[in-house]
Amino acid sequence: MKLVTNFLVLFIAAGWITACSSDDSPKEPVQTPTEALKVENVLDVSYGDSADQVYDIYLPADRTLQTKVLILIHGGGWTSGDKADMNEFKDFLRDQLPGIAVVNINYRLADENNPPYPMQTDDITDVVNDLKQNREEYQIGTDLGFVGISAGGHLSLLWSYALDTVKNVKMVCSIVGPTNLLDEAYQNTTNENLKDLIFQFGADAEVLKSVSPLYKVKSTSPPTILFYGAQDPLIPNSQGIALNDKLKELNVIHEFTLYPNGGHGWIGLDLLDTSIKLKAFIETHL
């Protein structure tokens, strides 16, 4: 699990804020308020009884009930990590897409007595419901996007494909997120770290299938953008490639990038490429 966190820290610390130029982003559709709203940051909003069930919401100026919402989901092998890991990423998105509300969430972490599923997708549902219940106060819309890294990428895809029953999700991004827990590369691995990660969900094939985004994606699934590293020690190449092929087969709008020298994260020109592509995808689809 520590390996996941270390790679994610390297990835996030690489400098999302400076990865792109500060071009003006298109403004959200606005309704004329009686008084223009200013930027507001609301931290550690509770959405459940656990100390882990909190989120930060970063509200843009001049927001309205049509303002789009982007939810960030941290990684950490489903057992570790914190929304603070996404702070540099959050700052990049706020700088590059100033008209979007950004929500950075914590969720309950798995342990030997509490498997990741359905606990963590339930937490995402509770966050989404809390945002809807408070949209008048926040002055935000119902259109959602997801961006997740590693385990957060898996959760973003799974929730968007399987649990968004009212089709509020307009785009989803997975950066090095697992897509198929039944993959032979996982099932037959001799790597104990990988076994520990995957079998948190149990060993039953039907359960593993039910929590794999590859088996939940449909022709009506939201536009999807995927980023993977060909040298990733935790995510076999087949994970991203298989979902890319399935999205293509179903004619779902999508983009897929596999960086030949990327691991469980990357820096330099590859990171710049990710930044440019992700910003453009969010602008187009959210």
Count up the domains: 1
Low-confidence stretches: 1-34
At CATH's second level, what is the architecture? 3-Layer(aba) Sandwich
Q: In percent, how helical is the residue content?
A: 25-40%
Query: How much beta, percentage-wise?
Result: 15-25%
End-to-end separation in angstroms reads 32 Å
What is the N-to-C order of secondary-structure elements (H for helix, E for strand)?
HEEEHEHHEHEHHHEHEH
CATH topology value: Rossmann fold
Q: Within the largest sheet, what's the order of strands?
A: 1-2-4-3-5-6-7-8
Radius of gyration: 18 Å
Oligomer: single chain
Global structural class: alpha/beta
Describe the model.
- With 286 residues, the chain is α/β, with parallel strands linked by helices.
- It has a single domain, classed as 3-Layer(aba) Sandwich (Rossmann fold).
- It has ten helices and eight strands.
- It has helices at residues 2-13, 87-96, 119-133, 135-138, 151-163, 184-187, 192-198, 205-210, 237-249, 268-285, and strands at 40-46, 54-59, 69-73, 101-105, 144-149, 169-175, 224-229, 254-259.
- It has an eight-stranded mixed β-sheet, sandwiched between helices.
- Helix 3 (119-133) packs across helix 5.
Quick take:
The chain contains ten helices and eight strands.
Characteristic terms for this protein:
286 residues; 17% strand; globular; alpha/beta; Rossmann fold; disordered N terminus
Show the helix and strand layout.
Elements: H1 2-13, E1 40-46, E2 54-59, E3 69-73, H2 87-96, E4 101-105, H3 119-133, H4 135-138, E5 144-149, H5 151-163, E6 169-175, H6 184-187, H7 192-198, H8 205-210, E7 224-229, H9 237-249, E8 254-259, H10 268-285
Helix pairs in contact: 3-5
